[in-house]
Amino acid sequence: MIFDPPLVPARLLQRYKRFLFDAVLDDGTPFTGSCPNTGSMRGLTTPGSRIWVSLHDSPTRKYRHMFEMVEVHGETIGINTGLPNRLAEEAIRSGVVPALGGYGTVLREQRYGRNSRIDLLLKQSGLADAYVEVKNVHFSRSPGLAEFPDTVTKRGAKHLDELGDMADEGHRAVMLYLIQRQDCSRFRICGDLDPAYAAAFSRARRRGVEAYAVRCRVSPQEIAPCGLVEIDEPVPAAL
User: Is the separation of the CB atoms in 175 and 186 below 8 Å?
Assistant: First the structure.
């Protein structure tokens, strides 16, 4: 996806109340904007960090600026959790995930499971329906290794169990991790930060849930899925 209009550079002052951030433009103008990521954003909110924001002029918006990217150790990282579903669909349609090729219809936000919605439902005559859950990934503690989650996510564990139910019913069930950074060649579940999620991931895999991790090329001009990365086995939490 290409950013039009282009993103605007700024310096982060603080991110707070999960939904808000303060920053200053290159010309010295301070502003408050909205943060489209309610997670912990571990390691991505250091005051003084170089960031990029999108501009929105809708009269219904309280804040014109939206936090989109941050630079950490020279790497540009996307933080907007509203984009992964769109980027995942781009990855599937462009053949970045060969195992999910051949589907002509991609539906978003379809009801399924225990009063939930699946991010993407792939359909094609002659093929089993594929239920695809998408998770945004931006956390990295070791060079070349992307990790998820960066904090406890009971909702994420619930989604894995629901995917397992779909696999039990004979459908394809897919967990797709969308990595909004390019500097990682491997992906791993954070068993130390969320043992329950790691257990749910292993349980889902045993039930037949597929898992893929896609990294993206990220710049202030565009975010583009650029390839699969290897998924490591989860590391159990220390006893």
Answer: no
Contacts (Cβ under 8 Å, ≥6 apart) of 103: 92, 122, 123, 124, 127, 130
pTM for this one? Answer: 0.93
Give the model confidence (pLDDT) of 146-199 as tens digits.
999 999 999 999 999 999 999 999 999 999 999 999 999 999 999 999 999 999
76: tokens are: 């540009």
The CATH code for residues 8-78 is 2.40.50.580
**Which pLDDT value is given to residue 236?**
59
The residues, ordered by sequence, that sit 6+ positions from 68 with a Cβ below 8 Å of its Cβ are 3, 7, 36, 51, 52, 53, 54, 78, 79, 80
Torsional sign, CA 82, 87, 93, 99: negative
Task: Please report, for residues 113, 146, 169, 200, the alpha-carbon distance to residue 154 in angstroms, rounded to integers and kept in the order given.
Answer: 16, 20, 23, 10
Tokens 């899925």 map to which residue? 225
Residues of the chain with CATH 2.40.50.580: 8-78
Average pLDDT over residues 11-35: 97
User: Which of 165, 178, 12, 169 minimizes the C-alpha distance to 80?
Assistant: 178
Residues of the chain with CATH 3.40.1350.60: 84-231
Alpha-carbon distance of 40 to 213, in angstroms, equals: 21
- Please give the span between the terminal C-alpha atoms of the chain, in angstroms, as a whole number: 43
**CATH classification code of 84-231:** 3.40.1350.60
